[in-house]
Automatic annotation (TrEMBL):
Regions annotated as coiled coil: none
Organism the protein comes from: Gossypium barbadense (Sea Island cotton)
GO CC terms of this entry: cytoplasm; nucleus
Protein name per its UniProtKB record: Ubiquitin-like domain-containing protein
Keywords: Cytoplasm, Leucine-rich repeat, Repeat
Entry superkingdom: Eukaryota
Amino acid sequence: MFFIFVGQPTSSSTVQGFDSLRLLNLEDNCLAEWDEILKLSQLKSLEQLYLNKNKLTCIFYPDKNKIQEFLSNHESCEESYFPFQNLRCLLLGSNEINDLASIDSLNTFPKLIDIRFSDNPIADPGRGGLPRFVLIARLAKVEMLNGSEISARERKESEIRYVRLVMSKLLDNPEEINCLHPRFVELKNFYGIEDERPSVGAAGPQKMASGLLSITLKCVASSVGEKLPLTKKLPATTTVGKLKALCESFLKLKSLKLKLFLQEEGSPLPMLLDDEMATLMDMGIGNESTIIVDEES
């Protein structure tokens, strides 16, 4: 294992040599410009790059023009060169990344399967960032996210949930969908997901039935003691406020003021459902989800 720390950026455009270097640790070095990191892109054996605790605001995979710039500055650079060709692990925790383009660019890295994005604004739901299931859906090849393995089941559920979330918000604006959600059409077609909004005529009831979700309610309110989990089928159009009322009825919690959380596989903390007007579809809640029912303190 190698640990290399850098101070001031060098003036050369790329780092050459180090043919056996597989791991490079540049954590906590006040690095703010992704162009400085691109200088490492020709290290052909590099598999792991640690960039936690820096000041990066965005990342991108170099396009053909940027690659040509590298090629023109180094006569020894092979024409077959492409950036970060063996990078498998990229740790970007505790930076300042806050744009969707940075997330989507990770799909372009040829072999990248292990990513850390925790403690960045774009990946912190508490600061308006993306929840884990959206990150999984947008990152097609990733197998490990924020130190937690992505199972086949979690990927499938995350991608289906993501498609439904996008459909609930942007279905009438296909141009915006293609711009903001580059994997949406691919995933929608792959899973054969149709518009689940209710339609008129004879097909209406069947369409509504197809929108029913199996939801497990797990009560953890300390004042009511242990209760067995309860599974109910609910329309995808059920709002969070309505779900609270249903929980009061189903679990006999009439005297409590409730708060609900979505328990997500692989996520260390459940996600608070605090928008009472949002529907299950709006929140991207899919079939066989688990809702934690707690009481306000």
